[in-house]
Amino acid sequence: MPSIKELLGLGAKKLRGVTQNPQKEALRLLAFSLQVEYLWLISHDDFIVDEPKDFLENLDKRANFYPLEYILKETSFYSKMFYTDERVLIPRPETEILIDKISSTCRGIKKPTIVEVGTGSGIISVMLATLMGGAKIIATDISQDALEVAQINAKKHKVDDIITFVNCNLLDEVDDKIDILVSNPPYIKKGEKLEKNLSYEPQIALFGGEKGDEILREIIDEAIKRDVKFLACEMGYDQRWKIDNHLKNYNLKAEFYKDLAGIDRGFILKNTKMNI
Question: CA nearest 96: which of 109, 108, 82?
Answer without folding.
Answer: 82
